[in-house]
Write a structure and sequence with these properties.
By secondary structure, the chain is of the alpha/beta class. It is built from 14 helices and 9 strands. Helix 4 links the parallel strand 4 and strand 5. It is globular and about 65 Å long.
């Protein structure tokens, strides 16, 4: 019988913590690291995971190392900064599950390969609840042999693993999907404001939309945030949505793709962030559009 896969998990944020918990429950030998050590220690007490003292120490005792951080800069520091994962890259497989740029993924892959490691990019689509349930959709780019090597861990976190092609294509598809999600978020905000302006209650308008041809799974799982945003914790910060739209527009510019809807979406997110809503859930665009209409 082969030895259990040793998994290292770096980044225990809103999505990372429940994803790592799925791995612990699946029986992997799990070690964790987080920039805020107290969060890693609390996770370890609940899950039985081991806490690594640094990213390099995490990689040293792992076969597969998973990262779930905020952006390119955080990924760069985690992997290639002092005491980073790359210091113990030889023979390890790294799985970048963050929402980051394809260019960064490819540069990171080359840097890790130069040190004897391998990388796949495997970002996810789904809510925090989906992360808890292990029902995320995972988009995996990279060498098929490396994807297969990571599959036991990916299967524990997701309902489906969709191979997208070479390294960087998983990150590309994540940006594509999130661009569509943020566009839908913006369009929903406008649609609700339009219905409310005609005297239709928000709940009634939402009920019609979610039972119409315009319905999407996102509307269902984010419904509480749209109807009672202050009563629920942040699931997806508005400033992260703004980051995603920047990535999408950069990708469009590089590919010669016109993206007028994406530019509108980013412009509204920029206005909302400037108004102090950056740390709130992206559903804050709904009340922001109401205020914007009243002030115009």
């Amino acid at each position: 019988m082969s030895a259990p896969i040793r998994i290292g998990f770096a980044g225990l944020g809103r999505m990372g913590a429940p994803m790592a918990a799925r791995l612990a429950r699946a029986g992997f030998q799990l070690a964790v690291w987080n920039r805020t050590a107290e969060k890693a220690q609390a996770f370890a007490r609940e899950s039985g995971a081991r806490v690594a003292t640094s990213p390099s120490a995490l990689a040293e005792t792992s076969d597969v190392v998973i990262a779930m951080v905020a952006d390119d800069a955080a990924s760069q520091a985690l992997h290639l900064g002092p005491g980073g994962l790359a210091e113990a890259a030889s023979g390890r497989l790294f799985v970048e599950m963050s929402t980051i740029s394809p260019d960064h993924v490819r540069r990171l892959g080359a840097a890790l390969a130069a040190r004897g490691g391998a990388l796949i990019d495997a970002p996810v689509s789904g809510s925090v609840d989906a992360a808890r349930a292990g029902s995320l959709a995972i988009m995996a780019g990279g060498d098929p042999k490396d994807v297969e090597r990571a599959r036991p861990a990916l299967d524990a976190m997701g309902r489906v693993v969709l191979e997208t092609g070479p390294l960087g294509t998983g990150a590309t598809m994540k940006i594509v999907v999130n661009s569509l999600i943020h566009g839908l978020n913006q369009t929903l905000a406008e649609a609700l404001a339009l219905a409310e302006s005609a005297g239709i209650a928000t709940r009634d308008a939402f009920a019609v939309i979610e039972n119409s041809a315009a319905a999407a799974p996102m509307l269902g799982y984010r419904k509480p945030l749209y109807l009672e945003p202050q009563a629920h914790p942040v699931a997806f910060a508005l400033d992260l949505a703004l980051k995603d739209m920047g990535l999408a527009l950069a990708l469009g510019e590089a590919g010669g793709v016109a993206m007028p809807q994406a530019r509108v979406t980013r412009a509204v997110l920029e206005q909302a962030s400037a108004a102090g809503l950056g740390g709130e859930d992206m559903a804050a665009v709904v009340p922001f559009m109401r205020r914007l209409g009243r002030s115009s």
